[in-house]
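Researcher: Structure for this, please.
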Amino acid sequence: MSLYRKRLRVVRGEGVYVWDSQGKKYLDLIAGIGVNVLGHNHPEWVSAIKEQLEKLVVAGPMFEHEERDEMLEELSHFVNYEYVYMGNSGTEAVEAAIKFARLYTGRKEIIAMTNAFHGRTMGALSATWKPKYRQGFEPLVPGFKHIPFNNVEAAKEAITKETAAVIFEPIQGEAGIIPAKEEFVETLRDLTEDVGALLIADEVQSGLRTGKFLAIEHYKVEPDIVTMGKGIGNGIPVSLTMTNFDVERGKHGSTFGGNPLACKAVATTLRILRKENLIEKAEEKFIEVKAKDVVMTRGKGLMIGIVMRKPVGRFVEELQNRGYLVHTAGQRVIRLLPPLIISKEQMNKVKSAIEGVINDLSGGEG
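Model: Predicted structure, token format:
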């Protein structure tokens, strides 16, 4: 569905705000669909990118460069995966993960979840569940099957010695900000280990946002492959596929993946997040919206879904009219993915604004 009846033309951003072509100011709670984790025009980040543009943008994957070393050093503060493969988008990271799983195990079957969203290229699309994304592109890549998310018994029945990997989102984003249940994640880990399959955590949307570097850390489970994208470069297209096993040189590659500009963007983003403790602070900024026609608020940290009894289109439109940009996840969920630099006080104002709009349009308090 369209986010707004009329598309908004944004022309500049500063911090947690953007301005449209008419000069109106908005609090940006979309952040490029979870991309601008440092907000817009962060001075330290912009300075580093400008400097890199004047120094070296691309080098080619056959060369080493200091920006890659810098990125890996910053990444080591958060995770201890031995190998990092760089691409240009979240869907590319998922494609790499699928390829690596089949190559490593020698098996073909990939198990994904109902309501999952992993991207729009052919392999990632095959793991993505909703028919609206898939229709018109069949036949998709063979070997994929879907099981109900958070269904332990379905997982036990589906995962066998034919399975190469199980891919899942610790918090399903496009599905409506639905966290995985602890028992389900533990079951996936146990079953994949038992049959020699790999566990892939897709953290493209959930990474950085939940109070921990990876949302999977809340479950104290270590997957075999992790994918990241979106906010990891704060706006420069970049993605990571992290593993503890190597892939033979030549089996996978990317012309632009791991270029000096992208590496500098990741290194600078991670350094600022670490220095300002923004990832940990995200957890305390979660808000719970209570208003008429609100079923629940779910998610973790600054990955928030407000589940409604009614379609959310008119609520989203009215919030825009009042200077708040929010996103959707399906027809009945208002989705918030704000910059991590947003303050707790600003999030409380967001809570009040959303509750006010919902109550005004729904005819009173719930």
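Researcher: Any notable elements?
Model: The domain at 10-34+281-362 is CATH 3.90.1150.10 (Aspartate Aminotransferase, domain 1). The CA atoms of residues 56 and 260 lie 6 Å apart.
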